[in-house]
Amino acid sequence: xxxxxxxxxxxxxxxxxxxxxxxxxxxxxxxxxxxxxxxxxxxxxxxxxxxxxxxxxxxxxxxxxxxxxxxxxxxxxxxxxxxxxxxxxxxxxxxxxxxxxxxxxxxxxxxxxxxxxxxxxxxxxxxxxxxxxxxxxxxxxxxxxxxxxxxxxxxxxxxxxxxxxxxxxxxxxxxxxxxxxxxxxxxxxxxxxxxxxxxxxxxxxxxxxxxxxxxxxxxxxxxxxxxxxxxxxxxxxxxxxxxxxxxxxxxxxxxxxxxxxxxxxxxxxxxxxxxxxxxxxxxxxxxxxxxxxxxxxxxxxxxxxxxxxxxxxxxxxxxxxxxxxxxxxxxxxxxxxxxxxxxxxxxxxxxxxxxxxxxxxxxxxxxxxxxxxxxx
Length: 376
Fold this sequence. Notes:
Radius of gyration: 22 Å
Number of domains: 3
Structural class: mainly alpha
Oligomer: single chain
Strand order of the largest sheet: 2-3-1-4-5
Low-confidence stretches: 1-9
Strand content: 5-15%
């Protein structure tokens, strides 16, 4: 016989599915315009043949997704997960801006539950995903752009109100990615995983305080994710050590998880894999697209997304595509060149004949501004 206490503490994959489903549901509702067509921000499908599908297709997929997530809270089973994943895959094919980091993570976690029948191997795959997120998130931050954009401007200046910094204070910021990288590795080591968990939980709590209503009150779409991750750390790592022996008996999908979360992110360093698919989270130095327009209709429609204070771009006001996406869809645009190119082409199509100019701005201590043109 088992005691009630031991039954509660037992690893339960269905509990993880419920936690992910609840967080996913809340997140999708926060950025609901991302999943619909009733918006100014253009849709960026993976292929031009998917560009002109009726709005009803997007609405139907969104409803199926929300309905599946609600049902999973009550009936966490593989058939419902497969339905959810089908709707999400189709929806993401219709707009690449939907390939958000949390979307990628949740799809993989649900897919592991659906396609891996062994509960221990499912947990092993989930552990790989979480550890990979922290390790490569730290890797992406280990650069001067993180120090400039996130550590100095976001954390020290905007959040803590510290404006007078010196070289020592700035270099201290490198401790953050080092801690995150180390924690990701420590999660996979039995003797150190319980050291990593409190450090990462503290990190998420600080992020919530900084980005939440009591702090900068920004990027609400990531609040639920920062609540979920400490819970997953406890459920998946606190009582359950990472078992390297499972590598010798992994099935196909578990190997796919390993490749996607521990091999392919290295290719991002050379530009051969997407940033958001490599856990590049608040790393700084990401290219941002700006648009200078003289079109009166465009200036009227985009008035609330214009930036009048940004003097680096040679026009004022200037349209920040980052600000546009963040304000209208409550999530940031997908930061890849092909997506920016598609946005420029969509802009030229909507506002033909205007002499608009497009600029890519890369922030940092030595920032750069480059005029770009939509590819054919």
